[in-house]
Write a structure and sequence with these properties.
single chain; 126 residues; mainly beta; four-stranded antiparallel sheet; 11 strands; 0% helix
Amino acid sequence: QVQLVESGGGLVQAGTSLRLSCAASKDFVSKYAVAWFRQAPGKEREFVGGISRVGRVRQYADSVKGRFIISRDNAQSTVSLQMNRLNPEDTAVYYCAAYFAVTGEVSQSVSRYQSWGQGTQVTVSS
């Protein structure tokens, strides 16, 4: 399994931006699809955005489409989530997750992901 460490969370005001980063162990390069999930208190963990092994395929939840952008740098073994026009409904713990995937594949299912980070809190105040 690949080791994942998230960073970049914090407390921000509605309408502003935040960038999350996920650093992975060195064997991560080009082998894993990666996604960001989030979980708010009392709610199930939900898919936010995902990116395929070399970044050709990207998928987003409807709630963040047009506001969030997922990207990856395989040379640096990092995946980022740029979050723009944040609103209080985006408040949650954000998790980076990965699974060994075939080319072009990105799953939105929690159960498909084999490796998870510890999570980073994002709080958006109104």
